[in-house]
Structures are given as C-alpha cells and as structure tokens.
C-alpha cells in the first residue's frame, strides 16, 4: 500500500494534519518535501472518506537569527534577535518580514494545489489564545526542565523558565532569559551573551508573559500548538527526529505536562542537491520558487512523491535528472492509459499512487491522461533554430494531438526553454555544426571512417526519415562491421557536434535534412 494511504488507513476519528515553517527568508526546494508529504496524507484521508483538517502555520515569533545574503545587510542587521513579525518587510507591498516570505512560500502552495488553512503564531500570542498554555508551562517549569534533561541530556538551571519575553528596552526576543514567575509576571534579563549571533542589552525587569509579550521556546511552543489545534498528525524532517532530538523532547513535554499523547509522527529524509543538504543561504537556482518556475506543478509534486519519505531525494537540475523525472512521469501516464477503466485505475491502482497524488487537482473524477512526449527530444528540438518546434512535435506524435495534449506539451516546452536558459552547462547543450565540419572530426580513425561511409550509403536507401528507424540502422551497421557501438556513435557525434556524446543518433539525424546527413557522413569518412 502507498505510504500515505497506509497512514490514513490506520487513523480513526477526526484528523488534524499540521505543519509549520519559520519564515526566515527564501525557501529552498527541500522544504517542499514536508509540504507535499502532509498534503498527500490529508488527501489520502479524504480519499478514504475520513474527516480531516489541514493546517499550516508561520512560526513568526521566532527570532531573525541571520540576515540572508540577498538582503541589505545594513538595513536588517539591527533587527537580529527580533521576532520575525517585528522586522520590516524587504518588499513594498506586504506588512512585515515574516508575512513577506510566508506569502512568497504560500504562492508556491497555490501553484502546487496545496490548500491548507494557514495561521500566523503572532495572532495566537497577541490575541491571548496562548495565555493558558504559557501559564501552564511556566507553572510546570520543573517538568519541562526534567524532560530536557532526561531526553536530550540538556541541563537547565533550577531557576530556568520556558519563556522568552520581548525585551522592553531593545526589542529582542532571542537574548532574554526568565528566572522567576509569580503567576502574573516573569522576571527576566536581556543577557549580553544570550545568543551567539547577537548581544542582549543587559536590561532586566518584570513583565506579564501574556498577550503577545513573548514566546515559548520552540519545542514547548510545538506542544502548545498541538494541544490548541488538536493536531493528530505531524511529521518532521530527519534533523528533528533523531533519538533525543527535538521531536522526542516535545513528545516528553506533551506527556509530562499535558498528560497527553503526542500526534502521530514519522520522519522524512532530506533532499540533497549535488550530494549536499541544501541550506537556505547557499545554492543558486534551487529555491522553491526557482524550481517551481522550472517544473510544471505535477512534475514538482511527482519529484517529491516518486521517492518514499524515508529515502533521500537526490536532486540537481541537470539534464540527466530533469529528463529522467519527466520520463518516469510519462511512463506512469502510459501505464494508466493501458487500463480498461482509466478513472478506476488512477483512483485505485497502487503503482499509480505517485501519479494520483502528483495531480494539482485533488478531485480525480475528472482526471484525464494525455499523450506523452519525451522532454529530451523537446530540449534537442529547441536548440535547432531552423525547426518549427510545434510542427516537429506534431509530425512525431503517433496520434493526432488534441488541445489538452498541447497544453501539457507546451508546459514541457516551457521547462525545456527554462532549463536551457538557466541551468544547462555548455557541455549539455546541443550545438550542431551545420556550416562546417567540426574541428574534432580529425580524431576519427580509419575503422570509424569505414563505419561512417557504410552508414552514409545505407541511409540513402532508408524509406522513412524517422528517429527509431535511423537509430536501428545505425546500430545494425556497427554490428555488421563488428565495430564497438561506442566507437561507432562517437564518430557520429564528432562529425556533427564536435564532441564524443550526444542525443540518440537516430534522433539527431531526424532533426536534420536527409541530404545534409548523408553528405556529412560521407565527408567525415573521407578525411585524412
Ligand atoms: Zn534588551
């Protein structure tokens, strides 16, 4: 059974699926994994007819702990340590820093068909909705200290309290420490060494902890949210899910202070880009927004779904990865097409679950498939300015393409264009030497030359100038001459592309004029 449907099957009664994010800056594509995982769990619950609510929160009372490199350092550095909702917006339209980056993220949700009820924690704090829990955790500070010590080995002083007021003097929330609570007010100090990235001002005083004057530490805050919102399912990334890690600490606090069981949890793995865990301040071209610009929404969802949550996703927007992603998706579409009852198949076939949940529209009753068309061919065609891409695609499609097929194919073309413009390495680009013989054709040896000559002759006799026929013929000739395929194809690429590798030889020929190919093969075979 598909993992999300397994989770959904095991749950009884009303379910509240929750996830959240600290809106500290631009979001990397890796953060979308959790978003899609929670979305798919709630879709699975709905699919099984179970009642479910889907929530997504902005943890915007968290402090600004670093100024991202793409922002004006001088403007934002004075706000280090401030709650994100109290930092000014980097943009013109949206009120503050947290809203600005959260809105940017939520735009991608809409693109992907993810539609949770969203909330901002500032509203919970300022409206007094958190007051009861703040009091409860302050009264039970000893139990919180105990849970930290027992689960993570983190020793807190006997007069440490789980609360951080916003300093009345300097506005920072990251540097304050509470050492007493009398049921109405906390006594705190804004400590010069209270955080490792910013200094506190040294102020101390008493203040009410209620109505937005400060926040719970995040592991405690997590528990308060679960209780307030009635959360029953919340997954977390591997970094929070280690033994003795933050999720374990939160679970223990939930148990000991509230006497309640924590929500269902299962960890999910990272997304690695070029083999490294993505960080939010590094990496070019891999923010969620940039990848959403590159991929159609179904393909971006599919990227997250074709891999089990507990397996690392290796993603880098190179030719190999992108074309394979599309090919895998198209394979599932073709599989769905083969069934007698398409609608039933997409709804129930286990193999098709990643395709089912990759759709932007969660209502699959009106789902329809489409004719697939290979992205790698599209990428090649786009690089041949002498061709009309839509005509070429139309000529190559096995069946006539209808409006919906074109809608999908045009989204693939847009991906191809984007990829060529922003991601392709020079090595990955297809440059065909139309006007002159490539320099490196000199490397062709006599055995290879013999192959090219023979192939040139054979192609004059081909009836239909089609990629698959041309490919078969190129293979057949290498076999007859007993020349290793690799050597044979290398000679072809050297003759047309000035390099040793390229797209399928049959495709390459099919992009080009018949006489030109025959002539070029012939000339390349007769070089000294
Ligand atoms: Zn201060």
What can you see in these coordinates?
By secondary structure, the chain is mainly alpha-helical. Helix content is 45%, strand content 9%. The protein contains 22 helices and 13 strands. The chain has helices at 3-10, 32-47, 73-76, 97-111, 121-126, 131-139, 141-152, 218-229, 246-258, 288-294, 297-305, 319-338, 342-348, 353-358, 375-382, 389-396, 403-422, 446-460, 467-480, 485-496, 505-511, 514-525; strands at residues 15-21, 52-58, 117-120, 164-165, 176-181, 186-190, 204-207, 214-215, 236-237, 267-268, 271-273, 276-277, 313-314. The strands form 5 sheets. A 3-stranded parallel sheet has the order 1-2-3. α1 (3-10) crosses α2 (32-47), α18 (446-460) crosses α19 (467-480) and α19 (467-480) crosses α21 (505-511). The longest helix is centred in the middle third of the chain and has 20 residues, at 319-338. The radius of gyration is 30 Å and the shape is elongated. The chain starts with a helix and ends with a helix. Bound molecules: zinc ion. Residues 167, 169-170, 172, 190, 200-201, 203 line the site of zinc ion (ZN).
